């Protein structure tokens, strides 16, 4: 299928209905500039996303967007972080191989000398019950948009 992003870019993606479980005890960390372009990713990020570090750096974070994620979730994320606040949420991410993984994400604005320089996201293992609840909630949100 084709996916189109907010900036008009689009690409063909393969979706595989297979969940890769979040590794125990690991934090997946990335940093972006103010427009969401990845400037830093840790080893856990590389392993879970399936992309090499070279492929990730300089790429927009939307490369991980899964089509099951409602646009409103990201609208809320950007409204929150642009206003200088921390955002928490559950995100279903798309791997390079088309499989997916759920994370519990915290996104923090980076402020240096009073100026916004970018954002940091730290992900943890999500609880199973929250993943089940978000799967239903996001499916409902996507249906509401379509109808
Ligand atoms: C620090 C940071 C981390 C982000 N992490 C993710 C992520 O893991 N997965 C994701 O789909 N979007 C993530 N986003 C949101 C993307 O920038 C983008 O808004 C989202 O994928 C929706 O893309 P689109 O609106 O361009 O289609 C992150 C944004 C920031 C600033």
Textual characterization of the structure:
With 147 residues, the protein is α+β, with helices and mostly antiparallel strands. The protein has one domain: 2-Layer Sandwich (Beta-Lactamase). It is 29% helix and 31% strand. It is built from four helices and seven strands, in the order ββββαααβββα. The protein has helices spanning 43-49, 53-56, 71-82, 128-146; strands at residues 2-4, 10-12, 28-32, 38-41, 87-94, 100-112, 115-124. The strands form two sheets. The protein has a five-stranded antiparallel sheet with strand order 4-3-7-6-5. It has a two-stranded antiparallel sheet with strand order 1-2. A hairpin with a 5-residue loop joins strand 1 and strand 2. It starts with a strand and ends with a helix. The mean pLDDT is 96.
Provide a quick synopsis of the model.
By secondary structure, the chain is α+β, with helices and mostly antiparallel strands. Helix content is 29%, strand content 31%. It is globular and about 45 Å long.
Derived structural class: alpha+beta
- Helical residues, percent: 25-40%
Radius of gyration, in Å, reads 15 Å
Our measurement of the CA-to-CA distance between the termini, rounded to an integer number of angstroms, reads 21 Å
Strand content: 25-35%
Reading the helices and strands in chain order gives EEEEHHHEEEH
Output the number of helix runs: 4
> Are any ligands bound, and if so which?
flavin mononucleotide
Query: How many domains comprise the coordinates?
Result: 1
Low-pLDDT stretches are none
Under the CATH scheme, the architecture is: 2-Layer Sandwich
- Would you tell me the overall average pLDDT? 96
CATH-assigned homologous superfamily? PAS domain
Which CATH class applies here?
A: Alpha Beta
Largest sheet features: 5 strands, antiparallel
CATH fold name: Beta-Lactamase
The outline comes out as globular
Q: Strand sequence of the main sheet, in spatial order?
A: 4-3-7-6-5
Instruction: Please provide the count of β strands.
Output: 7
């Amino acid at each position: 299928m084709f996916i189109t992003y907010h900036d008009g870019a689009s690409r063909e993606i393969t979706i595989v209905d297979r969940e890769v479980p979040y590794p125990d005890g690991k934090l997946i960390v990335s940093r972006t500039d103010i427009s969401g372009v990845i400037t830093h990713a840790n080893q856990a990020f590389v392993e879970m996303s399936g992309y090499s570090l070279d492929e990730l750096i300089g790429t927009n974070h939307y490369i991980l967007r899964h089509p099951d994620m409602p646009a409103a979730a990201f609208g809320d994320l950007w409204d929150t972080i642009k206003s200088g606040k921390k955002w928490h949420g559950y995100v279903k991410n798309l791997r390079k191989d088309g499989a997916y993984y759920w994370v519990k994400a915290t996104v923090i604005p980076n402020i240096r000398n009073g100026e916004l320089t970018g954002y940091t996201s730290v992900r943890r293992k999500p609880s199973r019950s929250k993943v089940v609840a978000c799967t239903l909630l996001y499916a409902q949100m996507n249906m509401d948009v379509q109808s």
